[in-house]
Amino acid sequence: MTSSSIITPSSSPAASATSTQVSAASGEETTSWVQRISQTLIKPTSLVIVSIAALGAAYFVYKSLRKTKTRSITGDEYSDTSSDEESDESEEMEMRDFTLEELHRHSSTNHKQYVSVMGKVYDVTGSGFYGPNEVYSIYAGHEIGKALALNDVSSQHLDQFDLSDLTPQQMDHLTSMVEHFEMKYICVGTLNEWAQH
């Protein structure tokens, strides 16, 4: 035989056809695997599951970021340390009347700190200002309207009910502070002595 008539397995027409079939079969397997994954992910039920998972993740991120830094009445930043459970508990709390003596029990050393602003008693627990050794700890357990109007962080103007000597600017400042407390803190009651004054 001549060298040109020797047939190698790779050059035979039958081998070439078999090789093409294997390539085609492996291409079909690859394509069908990719198609199966695509079809599974595109099914309506899969889209719903993926959407629910994405919404759950977004809600978790929102709840984590919701407790962001807030500005205090003096512009200082602090973290809100109250939890959702505490908020729910506070929302269920009934409004009540306090005497000045009862309010004094909610000082900076108590586990619940309350302040009264023009006769409205607010729960300021966890705000980062009214607890022991905090910047406004002296306010906890007191009527602080006049002290706020005068920007006084001493005991001199605590538990004072007569505001007749305040200037219009001081009254405006007190009004803005009342609005701040109404937005920031939960009102838990009223102070009897304020109503009697």
Automatic annotation (TrEMBL):
Residues 1-26 have a biased composition (Low complexity). Residues 77-92 have a biased composition (Acidic residues). SMART domains: Cyt-b5. Keywords: Membrane, Transmembrane, Transmembrane helix. The chain crosses the membrane at residues 41-62. The keyword Transmembrane helix applies. Residues 98-192 form the Cytochrome b5 heme-binding domain. The keyword Aminoacyl-tRNA synthetase does not apply. It comes from the Eukaryota. InterPro entries: Cyt_B5-like_heme/steroid-bd (IPR001199), Cyt_B5-like_heme/steroid_sf (IPR036400), MAPR/NEUFC/NENF-like (IPR050577). Pfam families: Cyt-b5. Residues 1-28, 72-93 are annotated as: Disordered. One of its GO terms (cellular component) is membrane. Belongs to the cytochrome b5 family. MAPR subfamily. PANTHER family: CALCUTTA CUP-RELATED, MEMBRANE-ASSOCIATED PROGESTERONE RECEPTOR COMPONENT-RELATED. This is Cytochrome b5 heme-binding domain-containing protein. The lineage of its organism: Eukaryota, Discoba, Heterolobosea, Tetramitia, Eutetramitia.
